[in-house]
Amino acid sequence: MHVLTADGIRLAYDSYGQETDETMLLIAGLGTQRIRWTPAFCEALAAQGFRVICFDNRDTGGSTHFTQLPAPQFGALAAALMAGQRPQVPYTLHDMAADAVGLLDALGIERVHVVGRSMGGMIAQILASEHAERVLSLTSIMSSTGNPALPAASPEVMALMMRPAPDPTNDEAGFVAHSLAFARCIAGTGFSFDEQAHRTIVREEIRRGYAPGGFARHVAAMAVAGDRRARLATIKAPTLVIHGAEDPLILPACGEDTARSIPGAEFMPIDGMGHELPKETYAIVIDSIARTARRATRAA
What is the Cα–Cα distance from 300 to 115, expressed in whole angstroms? Predict the structure, then answer.
């Protein structure tokens, strides 16, 4: 693990491959750490000829924890949004995108290929639209546009996601079981569910750095992000949109809407995949990301 400070934010990151190769920046999802981009995935992507960097978003892992800021209450947040108000939140997805830009600046990297999953896909979209000069290509995985007309996850899925988790510092087994139940809920039927691997990665995230309230602050940032379609329409970088055909959390229609909103974007649904990135999909996903990146290189 490497650590640097950018604009006052501590950012923990890992780097794979040769520093002289074009850089691929991987952005993690809601409340999760950079290790969800597994070493096997990162090493295989680096073998395609890229320097691969994955980092902990703020409020996760080894990056700055904003525990001095109160965790938003989901009920109050939802009520304000239903009333047409924009509630005050600790920070926004734009702030998180600025963290990524700060990381690149600190490393002296001018332009990158950006890959984001779930909430990380939303941050990647902001980078490609608001910081277009820094983005060579974009891959948005199991993400959405913020279009309010899109279908939402079922109440059952949302209730399980929003159910308070046990404090892992007092009840690690309960926290792991909570995480495991949700992971099973959002997994697709086309791939094996590796329970042991999930238990291992959640325990590793606890060990690396649990941020009390971090999940809620991430949710709040997503909740006020708004509709990005107008900005997505300005993206000129080659774009790939990957989505699980069985995703019950961010439904496939959300991926389709993302691809429609970005000129020339390719939509790649994966049969049997839910809101996950099973190891069985690594080969096709990595090949597709690399192909999209090379489209940008050829164009340049």
Answer: 19
Residue 233 CB coordination number (10 Å): 12
- CB-count burial class (<10 Å; 0-12, 13-18, 19+) for 159: exposed
* 264: its two tokens: 């020339």
pLDDT tens track for 93-142: 999 999 999 999 999 999 999 999 999 999 999 999 999 999 999 999 99
Alpha helices in 85-235 (DSSP H): 93-107, 119-130, 155-162, 172-186, 195-209, 214-223, 229-232
Distance (Å, whole) CA 10 – CA 143? 26
| pTM, entire model | 0.96
- Distance from the first to the final alpha carbon of the chain: 32
- Going by C-alpha positions, the residue among 152, 118, 141, 129 that lies closest to residue 30 is 118
Q: Give the separation between CA 208 and CA 223, rounded to whole angstroms.
A: 27
**Distance, CA of 175 to CA of 28 (rounded, Å):** 20
Question: Could you tell me how far CA 162 lies from the centroid of its own chain?
Answer: 18
- Fold category of 2-299 in CATH: Rossmann fold (3.40.50)
Cβ-Cβ contacts under 8 Å for 84 (sequence gap 6 or more):
none
Quickly list DSSP for 140-182: EES-----TTSPPPPHHHHHHHHSPPP-TTT-HHHHHHHHHHH
Report the distance separating Cα 210 and Cα 257, nearest Å: 34
Residues 147-190: pLDDT tens digits? 999 999 999 999 999 899 999 999 999 999 999 999 999 999 99
Q: Which residues pair with 241 in a beta bridge?
A: 140, 267
Rounded distance between C-alpha atoms, residue 187 and residue 276, angstroms = 6
